[in-house]
Design a protein that fits this description.
single chain, 286 residues, alpha/beta, 3 domains, 3-stranded antiparallel beta sheet, 9 helices, 27% strand, binds S-adenosylmethionine
Length: 286
């Protein structure tokens, strides 16, 4: 629905069972949307190798994923493949489980913990390192929610390790720098995103009130001014004059599980804020 009738959505999964269930709903969904032709298809493949699954390089505006990256033994390849498939200015928007420390191999191999998407979790700093390594230079956290392990035996195996469900946004933008830099740029949200009339939350420390000018770092200016978001923001200034490092800690911490205007991504493709803007025309969902 979010990509409109002229856009398209491709779902990918490695199991025939899941693909069969998904494909069985295409016609009903197309009818429900009132479209003449389906704009939705499902392909068999691995998220580590999107191109092999027929998804061309530089072809996607948006990739959404929920609880799949966590299951992959090769998270670097997942990120590399996503980076390759996105267009310049495209975004990977996804939820997954992360830990606050590296998980020992023995715990990682525990079948129940793995199946529950727990022990496959990557230490968050290792994950951020991988993002940067493949080109997602400035990964942004949108929502971070602690996960409670209900079972005392499993909790015992995990010790003091804490787990979080984190929704991240990874923008593919050539202009992103390693650190937040101050070029004196200002962003003004126009209040034009559907469902976000009064404010827009970019990440857990950037909330833009409609029509209120806000100083932003160069990276944030690029995320708002060089992606699908650009028609909803006015960016004043460029990178011609540098005023040193930008102190992002001054930005308000905003997104929590309950306060974010974005979906939790649990409802894959159905309510994603990135998509609901109508700014993207092609996406992948896994
Ligand atoms: C926890 S489910 C999540 C499904 C869906 N994203 C959702 O939110 O309901 C995990 C799915 O990921 C698929 N999967 C796991 N690893 C994969 C990989 N490397 N490539 C493609 N699909 C994978 C499994 O077949 C399974 O259908």
């Amino acid at each position: 629905m979010q990509v409109g009738e002229t856009g398209s959505v491709t779902g990918i999964d490695m199991t025939d069972e899941l693909l069969a269930v998904s494909r069985a709903h295409i016609d009903a969904y197309t009818k429900q949307l009132g479209y003449k032709q389906p704009n939705l298809k499902f392909v068999s493949g691995y998220i580590e190798f999107l191109e092999k699954a027929g998804i061309a390089a530089n072809s996607l505006d948006l990739i959404i994923s929920n609880c799949v990256v966590n299951l992959s033994p090769n998270k670097e390849q997942v990120l590399r493949s996503a980076f390759n498939a996105l267009k310049e200015g495209g975004e990977m928007h996804f939820s997954d489980v992360y830990s606050d420390r590296k998980i020992p191999d023995a715990t990682r191999k525990h079948k129940v913990l793995y199946g529950e998407c727990i022990s496959g979790a990557l230490y968050i700093n290792d994950f951020i390192h991988l993002c940067k390594k493949v080109g997602f230079e400035d990964p942004r956290v949108l929502i971070k929610t602690p996960i409670t392990i209900g079972n005392p035996e499993l909790q015992d195996l995990l010790g003091e390790t804490k787990f979080y469900s984190i929704t991240m946004r990874l923008f593919k933008l050539k202009n992103l720098e390693m650190k937040c830099e101050d070029y004196g740029q200002v962003a003004i949200y126009k209040g034009t995103l559907p469902g976000n009339k009064h404010s827009y939350i970019l990440d857990d420390h950037h909330k833009f009130e409609a029509n209120k000018p806000a100083l932003v770092c160069g990276n944030t200016a690029s995320m708002l001014g060089e992606t699908w978001l650009k028609k909803h923001f006015t960016i004043i200034g460029d990178r011609n004059v540098h005023y040193g490092e930008f102190d992002c800690s001054n930005s308000k911490a905003v997104a929590t599980a309950s306060s974010s205007s974005s979906s939790s991504s649990d409802d894959c493709c159905a309510g994603d804020s990135a998509c609901s803007a109508g700014g993207c025309s092609s996406g992948v969902c896994c």
